[in-house]
Queue: 4 jobs
Job 1
Amino acid sequence: MYNNWNELRNKCNNCNKCELSKTRNNVVFGVGNTNARVLFVGEGPGEQEDLKGEPFVGRGGQLLDKYLKAIDLDRNKNIYIANIVKCRPPQNRDPKPNEQEACIDWLRNQFLLIKPKIIVCLGRISAQKIIKNDFKITKEHGIFFNKKDTIMMATYHPAALLRFPENKGIALDDFIKLKNKIKEICPETYNKY
């Protein structure tokens, strides 16, 4: 357990616990308000994220930002965004279970420092790692779960919405449900800026 962000980031940036460290350009640690009450978690960085060192900066990230703006959230002001794995899997493949296990302590430590009231899983992989291992994104998106006094929900990954745009309206509904839950559980999120 690291007690501060600088120490955690420095250790994470030098991580070589798995094979992904050998092919990365940058560790994609996370971005946002470290005092946020809402934590978004994706599966892992893609090509653009690996090049820039920030999560969700490619086309999927641009779509995510539109959804966030629609419910008055901003990655730089009132939320924090991280991933299950901090290094890009080659060809943007799904992170393997052993890679997720090697990396998960970084996310756990971010969770302990942030102490979010709500976690939003972006996509099946993060939902299966965080909410439950048999999570079905097509059936359980937009449903809230309570685990150890933290509210969790999942929605479609932005990259999946780019491939299947017919689900964009469903995802928007999930974000509207999220806004209502934030107002109920941690309304201070909307007073931060």
Job 2
Amino acid sequence: MKSNGFFAEFKKFISRGNVLDMAVGVVIGGAFTAIVNTLVKDIINPIIGLITGGTDFADLKIILKPAVGETPELAIRYGLFINAVINFLLVALVLFIIIRNFNKMKELAQAKKKAEEDAEKAQQAAKPVEKPADIVLLEEIRDLLKK
């Protein structure tokens, strides 16, 4: 019967909205990664190559063992690593900017809500407190009895 508990818990997990949000984030992240990859490969690397005298980062490598016949060369392709680092930094920068702006907007919304609540409290405090009708009637009766 533990499997029923497991599947019930899994069904509860899947039916949360967070899972759908996460799936959308993964799909958008994949598309964004493709954009960043082409930005680095087709725009940034040629500019860097122009600055460094025509060197393409993807071609940078240290050959450990040259190719012999059908055996391919054995090389450390550090240029590809540099491309991956540039990709990572660009993705991290964009995510930082998005999250930073989201947090600022959230703070502004909270500050606006608090200001509205404070204004409402101040407005309520400025209003004279009206006494209920039964209290007013009892006070009138008291005043008449005093006379």
Job 3
Amino acid sequence: MPAITARPVEAEAFAPFGTLIHPPAHAGQREMFSEWALPVTGLRPQLHVNRVAPSRLPLTVSQVERHPHAAQIFLPLDAGTYLIVVMPSLDSGAPDIVRACAWLVPPMLGVAYRPGVWHTGIVALDRESCFSVLMWRGAANDDEMAAVSPVTVAL
């Protein structure tokens, strides 16, 4: 089974898939990420909170999802370190498991996935974790799921 090594997340490496949401460096500062939550014609915003049970590495990935119409934003509310696994699309639109990437994200950073980015669900590692999730929904195909050849994610 092929393997992916999870590494600490870096903004530049993650940029083709989305952006990292950093808290402001100093009291009184504000960081803006509104471009990731822009309205999508015919869709409505949905904000929900997920509680995620912890998982251990190595982890086997055999299914991914994407949201073709809108970005999906995850903000940790009460979380430990978490894992994100993403992959680009092949020309056919299918997930490209060969170019999959896995990153460890510290609990003070959020992530925003670009529309159409294949990804796994958020994987809590240290402990049970809660995330606020924001995206625009309302199309018949808001959520596209795809089975992929199993790949192991490890440290």
Job 4
Amino acid sequence: MSEKCQNTVGCRGYSQCMLSRTATAALPAYLRRTDSPIGRIEVTSDGEAVTSLSIACAGQLPLDGQPEHSTAVLDRAVAQLTEYFAGTRTHFDLPVATAGTEFQKAVWAQLANLQFGEVISYGELGHATGRATAGRAVGGAVGANPVPIIVPCHRVLASDKRITGYSGGDGVPTKVWLLDHEGIEHRS
């Protein structure tokens, strides 16, 4: 990943995470890319569910060198993402399979319950997952979300509605676009 990408992303772990995921993980069985107002998007699947979604960072996607090989669930995902960006879809109806710790999965489950335009603070997310004082762990789990947008980690803000970072795409500008698209009040 480029030096520019590493420096522009809101979460330092993003570049390392994306590099290590592509370097050490097996290549996905299915892969599809699409254009969007926030840059190119890459969605992967195991054939049954969406397993990851990546937003281009400085124009690059983690699996840019790999050929596309779609499946029905990826075709549905791209169609639903297109509708979301067009403003005609407010809820995703897709099977998602995520790999992570039990705590990460608990955080992602809470995020999946957020409705279009609804926000939650890191503290509220910590309370909801039984870790009221684990702000750093909550932030880490939010940042590790493998399927942003579909599991809406962009809807997490500080308690004063401040944006504290974003690990997808080009970082905070990507999150600002998503929040503005959903009409969510925020502070930069």
